[in-house]
Amino acid sequence: MSSTAWTDVDEYVADLLIGRDENLAEALQACEDAGLPPISVSAAQGQFLNLLATIQGAGKILEIGTLGGYSTIWLGRALPADGTLVTLEVDPTHAAVAESNVVAAGLGSRVDIRVGNALETLPQLEVEGAGPFDLVFIDADKPSIPEYVTWALRLARSGAVIVVDNVVRGGAVLDSDSDDPTVRGVRAMNELIAAEPRLTATVLQTVGSKGYDGFALAVVDAKSA
Question: Which residues pair with 215 in a beta bridge?
Answer without folding.
Answer: 165, 204
